[in-house]
Write a structure and sequence with these properties.
With about 130 residues, the protein is mainly β. It has one helix at about 30-35, and strands at about 5, 15-20, 25, 40-45, 50-55, 60-65, 70-75, 80, 90-95, 110. It comes from Marinobacter fuscus.
Length: about 130
């Protein structure tokens, strides 16, 4: 039995992970902001966990930004972020790609100097359980 399972938005790609995570970082660098379209990326990292693709491997693609180590794996059908192994010896798993709940809190914020201006006061923004009426 695997420790974690995950999938893309359209369900074409499914995967499992055996093992635990060493760290969980929220990265605010400009590269992560651009490739997530949000304030930060939320990625789990492991040097020992094993990734197994269960379905849709033909739909998995990746992009490495030239001149950097910045890499993103994604589903070619829906664009969802997926786990990557492009950095030797390191599994990088987008937290939102997991269908299994994770209990660990983020280890740290990275590149906080690049934080989006609107990210600082999110605690003051109203929260709705669904779409507002």
């Amino acid at each position: 039995m695997s420790d974690y399972v995950g999938s893309c938005l359209c369900g074409t790609v499914r995967f499992e992970i055996d093992g635990g995570f060493d760290s969980f970082y929220l990265c605010h660098c400009r590269h992560c902001q651009k490739d997530t379209g949000s304030a930060h990326a939320a990625n789990l990292f492991s040097k020992s966990a094993k990734l197994t693709w269960l379905a849709g491997t033909e739909s998995v693609s990746s992009f490495t930004l030239p001149g950097t180590r910045h890499n993103k794996s994604f589903c070619k059908r829906c664009g969802s972020a997926l786990p990557g192994t492009q950095i030797a010896g390191l599994l990088v798993v987008p937290a939102g790609s997991l269908d299994t709940e994770i209990s660990m809190l983020p280890t740290a914020h990275l590149f906080s100097a690049s934080k989006a201006v609107w990210d600082d006061r999110l605690g003051e923004v109203p929260a709705f359980k669904g779409l507002p009426e």
